[in-house]
């Protein structure tokens, strides 16, 4: 259960010492910066000791400063504007090796995704997809890339896959108006969460469909209505959304579904290979050269 840190600070403000009030003021006004500060750095920034910062965290109900910091990071996920993201990244990375820093951050996101995603939810999601009469997939903004990716591969396995476009709310609802109990909706959304995706999720749930959420946190607005919650870490990298871990999770989902649809997939690809050969879809220059040389 996530705590509203700003409300906690406001409710206990009268009980704070002078030093704690300085910390409270800084967090309230600069929570996006405080979330990435160590206890020592936060203390130096406001002019108090590191121990005062640690006591402050305990005072407002956390086990220690790391727990407070984690909650601050969760809080800002859907609050930061693009400009604030850039500012935070400049402070995090600054003059460091950007390639090394960003790739290692992505490696950490995949590791945390592996630790946090429920195997039971994952397996149940796979079964729901295989058994569905119709499969709807929705994702907007940067998540639209993930939605198109999963739709491409599911279209090779099923004849009932629909990518929901979100150009406008009316268009979106027109595409999912017939969704029902035998169908599923796969919703993909990461901070900043798109209102249209959340609305589509609730509409599908109200109409009896099974809903699968691919998102970043149990606090995500998609999690509330999800029958199967698949968590993938997607922290920011400047103004860019890091989608490495979500894509890796989706790869696993596609592979797992594919293993259950192996016979159909083999038939599909046998036909596709024949079509590709007949219509010269892929360049065979290397093969022809090897044949001539032989």
Q: Strand arrangement, largest sheet?
A: 2-1-3-4-5
In percent, how much strand structure appears in the residues?
A: 5-15%
Our measurement of the CA-to-CA distance between the termini, rounded to an integer number of angstroms, reads 68 Å
Rg (CA only): 24 Å
Which outline best applies? elongated
Q: Number of helical runs?
A: 15
Helix-strand topology string: HHHHHHHHHEHEHEHEEEEHHH
Query: Helix fraction?
Result: 55-70%
Number of strands: 7
Mean pLDDT: 87
Query: Structural class of the helix and strand makeup?
Result: alpha/beta
Low-confidence stretches: none
- Mind summarizing the main beta sheet? 5 strands, parallel
Descriptive keywords:
alpha/beta; five-stranded parallel beta sheet; 60% helix
Give me a quick take on this structure.
By secondary structure, the chain is of the alpha/beta class. The chain has 15 helices and 7 strands. The longest helix has 19 residues, at 98-116.
Topology (elements, then pairings):
Layout: H1 5-12, H2 18-29, H3 31-34, H4 39-46, H5 50-59, H6 65-76, H7 82-93, H8 98-116, H9 119-131, E1 135-139, H10 143-157, E2 161-164, H11 169-176, E3 184-188, H12 195-206, E4 210-215, E5 228-231, E6 236-237, E7 240-241, H13 244-260, H14 262-278, H15 285-293
Helix pairs in contact: 2-5, 4-5, 8-13, 9-13, 10-13
